[in-house]
Prior knowledge:
Layout: H1 6-12, H2 32-40, H3 43-48, H4 50-64, E1 69-70, H5 77-81, E2 87-89, E3 93-95, H6 103-107, H7 114-117, H8 119-132, E4 138-143, H9 145-154, H10 162-170, H11 172-196, E5 200-205, H12 213-231, E6 237-241, H13 248-252, E7 258-261, H14 267-274, E8 279-284, H15 293-307, E9 312-316, H16 326-337
Helix pairs in contact: 4-8, 8-11, 9-10, 9-11, 10-11, 11-12, 15-16
The structure holds coproporphyrinogen III (CP3).
Amino acid sequence: MIKNDLFLRALKGETVNRPPVWMMRQAGRYLPEFMEIKSKYDFFTRCQTPELASEITVQPIRRYGMDAAILFCDILVIPQAMNIEVQMKPNFGPYLPNPIRSQKDVDNVIVPDVKDALNYVYEAIKVTKEKLNDDIPLIGFAGSPWTILCYCVQGQGSKNFDKAKEFCFTNPMAAHQLLQKITDTTIAYLKEKVKAGCNAVQVFDSWGGMLSPVDYQEFSWQYIQQIIDALKDETPVIAFGKGCWFALGDMAKSGASALGVDWTCSAKNARYLTGGNITLQGNFDPTRLFSPPAEIKKMVHQMINDFGKDKYIVNLGHGILPNIGLDNAKAFIDAVKEYGN
Ligand code: CP3
């Protein structure tokens, strides 16, 4: 039994005294204790060493006491396990030296035995669960197949992922084969994460908003739906599509337990589009954490009033930025805990 089960209760839509809170990318570069570990070990060493990954996961919890932890790892461990080389270049981000650009490249992508290839992730989950001591739930995650394809084809981050979109629109058969391989790998991977101890999973469709509503259905949503179908009887699934407010109506009918919302969609509109019954998560503008702490607190209370305290998980509308002050992050979390007092 998990002692603080606010997050799991909100996922079930139960009535709560206050909503739970966590922050996307909470295990990261705004924390000095994270920077200390980062200075000693490269990115994938941090991901692959259970002691380090679990330590980084619990760092923000120790400091701020969020209502859920999210395992430190990255969405790009999936292409890595599929035999696609992924480097994390300092001050640059992900770099894939051999991007996928042809049917032949797709044919060479393997669907790995994830038990073997990503065993270090499940080991990190087990160590993290011990450290968390059943105080709060642990979230596991994966990127959406579309978002993973974006990196595999583009080869790096991008403002518009033009090469990824060009590949889909000029070679849709190969693109769909790649998306299906990523989907199959992701489903097996998330199932193993749940077996290892994750209490919920989130699918990050960080680049879904790059697609038109019609293309979103074809290249992103149908694959996320497969993931939800495969996981929903085993664990609550949160689907977060950045810039995907237009798809919220379909997402609400998907069997997901909750939907992530970014800051460009108002609470009222998100509730309207989703029919008012499903748990929503979000949607504080991450750059609003630059505001003075007192102002952050007021805005967070307003945000809770706008979404309603039930069927709601307080979060940012995307990941926390590295240059956010420690007191500003604290104000965000504290404001939720003080709600209703
Ligand atoms: O949320 C958490 O606290 C858990 C850890 C986590 C990381 N990446 C660690 C990380 C999670 C959930 C992710 C997901 C992720 N990774 C996404 C989806 C969420 C989002 O932000 O849209 C994406 C698109 C990636 C790919 C990725 N990884 C990028 C673009 C970068 C470089 C730019 C950046 O934001 O740092 C990474 C590297 C990365 N992943 C870092 C961390 C803490 C920073 C680099 C480092 O620590 O050396």
